[in-house]
Amino acid sequence: VLLWSLDLDLGGLGLGANQSGAAFAAFGLIGLTFQLLFFRRVASTLGIRRTYGFGALMLAIGCGTITLGSKVVSLKLSPWAQNAVLLTLLVPCSVGFMCGLPVLSTLMSNAAPAHVQGLCQGMAQSFGMAGRFCGPIACGAVFSWATRVHTAPWVPFALLSTNYVVCLLLTCGLSEAVETPHAHHAALRAAATDSTSRSSTSENEFELDSVEDDDSGAVLVRMITPRAGSSI
After folding, report:
1. Cα 27 from Cα 13, distance rounded (Å)
2. pLDDT surpassing 60 at residue 163
């Protein structure tokens, strides 16, 4: 909103209250359209980790494209062409939000063991609320400083873009285990342990009693009986 309502001379778009509201509505509509038509296909193709990474990448790009709005307005295009270009500049951020926010909670849920999932989700919500409280204050202060001293409203967006790049790099280091719930991996480990135990028990319960060969060396009879004390 600060960038959109900022004067053109200071690097903003010079939009009024109604135009800023329409831009927000278009931003939400783009995100809704993506989530309804494309999100499931993207998530199933890329997986959870890469979907979040894709969202972080789109947000990093979107923080740059938003700042180009003043350049578009200064071109003096026709209203339809100008609005189309401005809407296009909103697409990366809108898609990034739709890919990043829903998947983040799933990543945390899959990574946390069952007995601490509630704690992890609660801590994440607490830090998220703190970020939503402190973030606008910090970004607003940086934006005011950048426009007042340097006439560079892109500074806070550059910082945000750097933050999203860091999130992308951290996502690349995540294990593939976060693609499925932690309980699923625990069940697989338990099944593997049980299978190994059964195999070992089976080998210990049976023994080879005798092998009888004929003159040619071929096996005629192989007697296998339970060991003493076996329940089989």
Report:
1. 16
2. yes
Q: DSSP of 53-65, one letter per residue?
A: HHHHHHHHHHHHH
Give yes or no for a contact between 224 and 209, defined as CB atoms under 8 angstroms apart: yes
Q: How far apart are the first and last CA of the chain?
A: 77
Residue 82 CB-density burial (10 A; 0-12 exposed, 13-18 middle, 19+ buried): middle
SS3 call for 204: helix
Report the alpha-carbon distance of residue 28 to residue 98 in Å, rounded: 10
State the burial class of residue 210 (Cβ atoms within 10 Å of its Cβ: 0-12, 13-18, 19+). Answer: exposed
Helix, strand, or coil here: 215?
Answer: coil
pLDDT winner (highest mean) among 54-68, 99-113, 199-213? 54-68
Under 8 Å between Cβ of 73 and 89 = no
Who contacts 89 (Cβ-Cβ below 8 Å, separation ≥6)? Answer: 62, 65, 66, 68, 69, 72
**Is it the case that residue 120 has pLDDT exceeding 90?**
no
Kindly list the distances between the CA atom of residue 193 and the CA atoms of 61, 120, 186, 188, 211, in Å, as whole numbers in the listed order: 47, 28, 11, 9, 33
> Can you name the residues that pair with 223 across neighbouring β-strands?
210
Tell me what the mean pLDDT of segment 87-110 comes to.
87
- Please give the C-alpha separations between residue 47 and each of 22, 30, 43, 155, 211, in angstroms, as whole numbers: 34, 22, 5, 33, 55
Q: State how far the Cα of 201 lies from the Cα of 50, in Å rounded to an integer.
A: 43
Amino acid 122 reads: G
